[in-house]
Design goal:
This protein is mainly α. The protein has one domain: Up-down Bundle (Fumarate Reductase Cytochrome B subunit), CATH 1.20.950. Helix content is 62%, strand content 3%. It has eight helices and two strands, in the order E-H-H-H-H-H-H-H-E-H. The longest helix has 34 residues.
């Protein structure tokens, strides 16, 4: 029997975020003109993160934070093998929160970062160069933490597949997992989805610097 666990918005978020994180890493390493795309990708990641936070409140059953964020007792029960359930397991939930947290911090600092050459974050005009330099350092430092969490996440998926014979990838592709039909997710729907998208797009618009006053025009330099 099968249970419908992961709704389409959650699955689209998951794979879109994975692609964008890889793209952000590549463009950062290439540098130069690719940094323009790095900034745009960062804005897209911000939009996805805001969407996921809202969807974690109004989405379907297993997408909601209150369903998968567990306390110490549940985590200990899981480690003893006494936990049964659908969706994120208690340890997986910690991994999700850690990834969302570090990505949010990195995307936020990226808005105020610069590469000391030709590119600067969309909200750099709001702060001074000294603070921008410090936030750039934090932005770069968080990269190491993100790489560690991504490696841990992928390693856990491989472990579950090889050792526990539990495929975590397939349900995130088609939405279905082994279980009783009465365990299927409920809630979410078109209206909450639209609300989450509108809020996410608004955040991206603000983060792009749309509310900042236009830069003053460059004064013409006399030829003689």
């Amino acid at each position: 029997m099968k249970a419908y666990i992961w709704d389409l918005p959650t699955r689209l978020f998951h794979w879109s975020l994975a692609v964008l994180v890889v793209a952000a890493f590549i463009t950062a390493k290439v540098g130069g003109n690719a940094m323009v795309w790095h900034g745009r990708i960062g804005l897209a990641i911000i939009g996805l993160l805001v969407f996921r936070i809202i969807w974690g409140l109004v989405g379907s059953t297993y997408a909601r934070f209150f369903q998968f964020v567990r306390g110490p007792a549940t985590i200990l029960a899981y480690l003893r093998g006494a936990w049964q359930g659908q969706g994120h397991n208690p340890l997986g939930a910690l991994s999700v929160l850690a990834l969302l947290g570090i990505l949010t911090a990195q995307a936020a600092t990226g808005l105020f970062a610069n590469d000391d050459i030709a590119f600067e974050g969309y909200l750099v005009p709001l702060i001074g160069s000294d603070l921008s330099g410090k936030l750039t350092g934090i932005h770069q430092l968080l990269e190491n933490g993100l790489l560690f969490l991504v490696a841990l996440h992928v390693g856990s998926i491989v472990y579950y597949a090889r050792v526990k014979k539990h495929n975590l990838v397939k349900p995130m592709i088609n939405g279905w997992a082994d279980g009783s039909p009465d365990e299927s997710a409920a809630g979410g729907g078109a209206l909450p989805f639209i609300v989450a998208v509108v809020i996410a797009v608004t955040f991206v618009w603000v983060a792009s610097g749309a509310l900042l006053p236009p830069a003053p025009p460059l004064s013409a330099t006399p030829l003689f």
